[in-house]
Design a protein that fits this description.
about 25% helix
């Protein structure tokens, strides 16, 4: 009888040990997942068409492109012109009641003079080459800024402040961007969009 009790105790201890190990594994997995999302990378979906044709966006997340955002890169290097970045709303956008993150392309860097002339972006008085992501017919104007609560930022030439970036959507005819409300401080940048993983027939890196 004593042997039977001992065997039952051993089995119970084994079950308890198994459940404890499972609990530790689950907790560790959650912690790692949260840590990766917080510090390394995260998945997001594109809610609007402001980056078309590069990224397809729609309010229906099941039909929208889904991307991976690298949150680690800018801890070791500066954002570059042409990077597609996700950022939290600037103070101006917060004042306009925007709360969700934006996604745009960096067009001008700190210290650069930027202006719009004849529907084209000029950086330090030189036309910016954007044919890799814009069609030659796509013009960059400030007439998209009708919803802005202040004068369009690029209504006149501007010099980009230190640690700030001018960002524009690839869909210049339908993008509420820096033309209207100003620059993005570096501290607002969440990360760089590096990979589209949905839809499955269009998986690949982003340029």
């Amino acid at each position: 009888m004593q042997n039977q009790v001992s065997d039952n105790n051993s089995a119970q201890q084994s079950d308890n040990s198994w459940f404890a190990e499972l609990a530790r594994t689950v907790v560790l997995s959650i912690v790692l997942a949260l840590g990766i999302r917080t510090f390394v990378a995260e998945a997001r979906w594109i809610p609007s068409g402001s980056m078309e044709p590069t990224l397809n966006g729609t309010p229906d997340q099941w039909k929208a492109d889904k991307i991976i955002v690298d949150k680690l890169k800018y801890r070791f290097s500066r954002p570059l012109r042409g990077d597609i970045v996700v950022f939290s709303p600037t103070q101006t956008l917060q004042n306009e009641q925007y709360k969700d993150a934006f996604i745009k392309r960096i067009v001008a860097l700190p210290g650069e003079k930027v202006q719009l002339k004849d529907g084209q972006v000029y950086i330090n008085n030189e036309p910016l080459k954007e044919l890799s992501y814009l069609s030659s017919e796509r013009r960059t104007e400030i007439d998209v800024c009708t919803s802005a609560t202040q004068q369009a930022y690029l209504a006149q030439p501007q010099t980009i402040p230190p640690d700030s970036y001018l960002v524009l959507g690839d869909n210049r005819n339908s993008s509420y961007d820096s033309r209207c409300w100003g620059v993005v401080p570096r501290e607002n940048i969440i990360g760089r969009a590096v990979l589209r993983f949905w839809p499955l027939n269009n998986i690949g890196g982003l340029n």
